[in-house]
Design brief:
Elements lengths: L8 H7 L38 H16 L3 H12 L5 H10 L2 H8 L5 H9 L3 E3 L2 E2 L12 E4 L3 H13 L9 E4 L4 E4 L14 H8 L2
Helix pairs in contact: 2-8, 3-4, 4-8, 5-6
Length: 210
């Protein structure tokens, strides 16, 4: 399985939005997207590029979501095929599935500085779901699940350090966070309005349904 090991800020510039890959750094003036001369797509002749084709527009929406949630192609298509079997709109069901990923929930609750940090915490065994350790970042949470930090000094110290950076972050209406106990309760399943990335999911459906 391949993974991207290049400069991650290049991905934000290519998609034209902040993907929040570096966490708190993305909200400071050090973010390349804050600099006018680096907010353009990477490449020597980026400023000369014309309007993209229909395929290019669909591809950009797909790549944007993949990089935002940190997915590989195979993972992406597994979620999409699962969403196709849902009774609601495929695009809406797809985005709602991605929001339920455990690494995303950890980030949205403030227990990690970024989604990548959430994947590291889950993979290293720092996160418990309903009292049991879960080490799969792609685990889908359900309504009523209790998410907590491993009862060890090291895990609690790590989570508290991340929560200091997320004090000003807007709370998610579908998550109930108890900062004192480092616990998160999934009060409800996420809706389409809870998806914060600006994306036209219909373009993704059109591309992946071919």
């Amino acid at each position: 399985m391949s993974r991207y090991i290049g400069p991650v800020c290049r991905q934000c510039r290519r998609e034209g939005i902040k993907l929040m890959i570096k966490g708190p750094r993305c909200e400071t003036a050090k973010c390349p997207m804050e600099k006018q001369w680096r907010s353009n797509p990477p490449g020597m002749h980026a400023w000369r590029r014309g309007k993209g084709s229909g395929y290019a527009l669909r591809l950009r929406e797909k790549q944007k979501v993949k990089r935002y949630y940190g997915l590989f192609e195979r993972q992406f298509m597994i979620y999409f095929r699962h969403a196709e079997r849902a009774r609601e709109n495929t695009g809406t069901a797809f985005l709602k599935l991605l929001e339920r990923r455990l690494d995303n929930v950890i980030y949205k609750a403030g227990l990690a500085s970024s989604r990548k940090g959430g994947r590291v915490m889950v993979g290293h065994g720092h996160i418990y779901v309903n009292g049991r350790r879960v080490d799969r970042p792609g685990y889908l949470v359900n309504q009523g699940d209790q998410i907590s930090v491993k009862p060890s000094e090291r895990s609690k110290k790590l989570a508290k350090s991340y929560m200091e950076f997320s004090q000003d972050k807007a709370q998610q209406p579908w998550l109930q966070v108890d900062a004192s106990k480092l616990e998160v309760t999934v009060a409800a399943l996420p809706s389409r309005d809870d998806v914060q990335i600006p994306v036209e999911e219909q373009l993704i459906v059109e591309m992946c349904s071919r």
